[in-house]
């Protein structure tokens, strides 16, 4: 049996403050650090041994991965980082409080920005200092590929090729992989793996630091998927994520 564990990072400082984060590089909160360590402990208890790990360029995911591997005593395994696993870019919404934004624009509009498949927020201006072209970590990425805003659709368009060409083929060499990324980059992967429709994907909310296991056969077809941990706690965490964008 081959397995890939998808893990959203632990709570970030802006998650705690209920802000749109996107590509803004904010750190883990104290709770997020605990969540990451607890995810590592859970994976250790369940006997997971990873051969390779993947994460994004954003520190909340990188530090979550580090904490998980530390608890597993697997700090030595190879790790690949890619901007293609970054969170969805929230454009001009980045930094705004989600509840205050819902009070201004309405719950329905904020839900479209957060969870719909093809609606993107207003983009950053080209000269906005938050434009990723000004960030050294993206200096090798063609400028035309760097977003100023994204929908889930455009997030999938840059995430899925990395999944199909880099991550999934690794199963031929490693039976168990770990991918630590973000709510929307992982939602796009889950949408693809489970065949979720464009409309139904709005109902999928991934909680922080809850290991989501996908099992594959020898032809890399999904045969099973499940969250580790207490199902009631996972369901409550999903509901809490869904409520973040309501006034």
Draw up the topology in text:
Blueprint lengths: L1 E7 L4 H4 L13 H16 L6 E4 L3 H14 L6 E3 L16 H8 L1 H9 L36 H16 L8 E6 L1 H12 L17 E5 L5 E6 L3 H13 L4
Parallel strand pairs: 1-4, 2-3, 2-4
Antiparallel strand pairs: 1-5, 5-6
Please, could you describe this protein's structure?
With 247 residues, the chain is α/β, with parallel strands linked by helices. The chain has helices at 13-16, 30-45, 59-72, 98-105, 107-115, 152-167, 183-194, 231-243; strands at 2-8, 52-55, 79-81, 176-181, 212-216, 222-227. Helix 2 (30-45) runs parallel beside helix 3 (59-72) and helix 4 (98-105) packs across helix 5. The radius of gyration is 17 Å and the shape is globular.
Q: In brief, what are we looking at here?
A:
This protein has 247 residues and is of the alpha/beta class.
Structural class by helix and strand composition: alpha/beta
Shape, principal axes of CA atoms: globular
Return residue spans where pLDDT drops below 50 for at least 5 consecutive residues: none
> What is the number of E strands?
6
Query: What is the H-and-E element order?
Result: EHHEHEHHHEHEEH
In percent, how much strand structure appears in the residues?
5-15%
**Largest sheet features:** 6 strands, mixed
Using only C-alpha atoms, the radius of gyration works out to 17 Å
> DSSP helix count?
8
Helicity range: 25-40%
Gap from first CA to last CA:
44 Å
Average pLDDT figure: 96
Strand order of the largest sheet: 3-2-4-1-5-6
